[in-house]
Structure formats: C-alpha cells, structure tokens
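Encode chain A's predicted structure.
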Amino acid sequence: MATDFRLRLIAQCIKTSPDPITALQCFTTVQRPAPNIDALSLQAGGLFDFAGNWGPPHHDHRVGVEADMRITNPTFFIDSKFRIMLHDAVINALMDDPVSGEDLADPTSNHWHLVSLI
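Encoded structure for chain A:
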C-alpha cells in the first residue's frame, strides 16, 4: 500500500511538472507524505498491549487483520488533496475502512481504521 501510494504521488508530481527535467526529479524529490500505521499486532505474534486487556476499540487488532493509519499526526500529516490517492492505494491493497468516523468519508477523521479483506 505504501509503495502504491508513493507511486501515485510521483505520478502526480510528473503530471504537474513544468518541464521534463523537473519531472525526472520527482523520483528522488517525492518523500512525503508517508502513511503511518499503528495499533497492529506484532509480526511474530504476542501482545504490544502491555496491559493485556485488548479492550474496545482495539480488541480486533490483536490478530493482525485490523490497523489504524494516522492521517493527521504532525509528522505524518496527509493533506486532504492526497487522501483520495491514499484511499485508492488502501483499496488496491485489499483493505477497507469500514468504520464510520474513521474513514475517508469523514473529513474530520484523524485516522482510518483499516481492515484486511483477505
């Protein structure tokens, strides 16, 4: 998903570049915005929730099929003009954001709750 999103950003940069030289520089100059995934189980298993309570709303995150993606964190801010590209990358990665208020449809959302469809 992150690679897909970066390629979309590069394509947008190329499309809006004033000349071919500037367009070629897009491959090295496009670095941000970058998605930030958190609230996901550890790759090798185990709890990252040190209290071990996995209380709602994160109880389904424990099996690694759901995650939160921050979009308004100051370090990883995703401007609204890029959110549709990010959402398309999420869909292409066979994920969805089905939670109302934590999805693309809510412009005030500070994160998206992602669910793997596979």
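The chain has one domain: 33-116.
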